[in-house]
DNA sequence: TGCATCTACCTAATAGCTTTAGGCAAATGA
DNA sequence: TCATTTGCCTAAAGCTATTAGGTAGATGCA
């Protein structure tokens, strides 16, 4: 009996590939076992359970996304940085739809704290350094950027923009441009706004 | 043998309630059957399958959300309309987290076309009439609003904003205000922008 | 009212996924 | 070379989905 050489890392990687091929929801312990031509029960020496597998795929995706973000941000600032970072999200979701979905998998608080999630927020703040925002507006802006990136990408993945003109790429560019403009002219609180 | 009086509507309603209680992912044909104290197979006279059940819950949620949106928009315009409509999304997601998730369930194209989804887009365009946008910018703006509303609400539901200051309500208000400002001063295309 | 039909819900069965318990053989290391 | 560790296996129980076919309650018509 030749051993398959299973490790948590290989299982996670295979799960991530499977997610991209058939969707994160369809990733099961059984399907991963099949991929290694191994009995299902064998995976339970490496994984706690199904939730554990999904959590690991989510962490992998978050880390990959953060790595790409860091690379994109290197040597860039201002609108250039904003655009590059935004494209990282959108491109990743298009190249790896299953992993992108995995990245939105709800993690347990402790796991989330130890994940690459924090790096994402740090990078957004780094981008915002190119704009003139101070707390608490910077935090509001981080949340806005996160919402737009995630919201757009997931609506697009759901096909929401695929059956109407203009094409999605154009909206994406214009939206990122408009965010740049908004960040450059972030309005003061409504009650005192003279915008 | 007393009959339970199952109908597609009651099953859908029960499924929606279940979704709010335990999460849309946990809504199963079995769980709904249990709720009516009926055998699982009995539901298959009313529902095609599990996917059918989920689709119906999604349609219910989309319709409820559209109804609330329409009510909120009545007699309002401009920033007032924008704020009220935005709050409809956020409040609905908070009151009915399972239904809100259901509303994002990917529908088959024909089902989607017949759903309340179109009403949502129409309402956004109605709001934008209060701003000075013409095509294709209006479409870009519809997509931006959809992205921000959905993105913010789903990140918030995932707990992304719950462990840091300032509190989520404040960010939400400021973000909606900033969108209002952005729509009032929508930048021309980048290449010719003098913003 | 009585009977035929319809249909709502049932039992039974198959199949897939999850998870645990316990076993054997390959790898490791003294 | 032998003991130990450990990787993968078989077996089994429990849950969900789905289909086929049966029975009794509800409905409609004479």
TrEMBL record, chains A, B:
Residue ranges for the DNA-binding region feature of this UniProt entry: 28-47
Record's keyword annotation contains Transcription regulation: yes
Pfam families assigned to the protein according to its UniProt record, in alphabetical order: TetR_C_33, TetR_N
Domain (HTH tetR-type): residue spans on this chain: 5-65
Superkingdom of the source species: Bacteria
UniProt KW keywords: DNA-binding, Transcription, Transcription regulation
Gene3D superfamilies: Homeodomain-like, Tetracycline Repressor, domain 2
Transmembrane segments: none
InterPro entries: Homeodomain-like_sf, HTH_TetR, MT1864/Rv1816-like_C, Tet_transcr_reg_TetR-rel_C_sf
Protein name, as recorded: WHG domain-containing protein
């Amino acid at each position: 009996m030749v051993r398959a050489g299973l490790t948590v890392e290989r299982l996670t990687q295979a799960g991530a590939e499977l997610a991209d091929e058939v969707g994160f929801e369809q990733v099961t312990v059984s399907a991963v076992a099949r991929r290694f031509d191994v009995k299902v029960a064998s995976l339970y020496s490496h994984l706690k359970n199904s939730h554990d597998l999904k959590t690991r795929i989510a962490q992998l995706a978050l880390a990959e996304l953060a790595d790409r973000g860091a690379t994109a941000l290197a040597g860039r600032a201002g609108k250039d940085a904003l655009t590059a970072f935004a494209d990282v999200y959108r491109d990743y979701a298009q190249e790896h739809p299953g992993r992108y979905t995995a990245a939105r998998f709800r993690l347990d608080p402790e796991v989330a704290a130890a994940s690459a999630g924090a790096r994402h927020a740090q990078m957004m703040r780094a981008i915002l350094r190119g704009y003139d925002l101070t707390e608490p507006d910077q935090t509001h802006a981080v949340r806005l950027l996160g919402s737009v990136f995630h919201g757009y990408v997931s609506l697009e993945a759901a096909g929401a923009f695929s059956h109407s003109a203009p094409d999605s790429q154009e909206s994406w560019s214009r939206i990122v441009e408009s965010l740049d403009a908004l960040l450059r002219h972030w309005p003061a609180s409504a009650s005192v706004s003279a915008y």
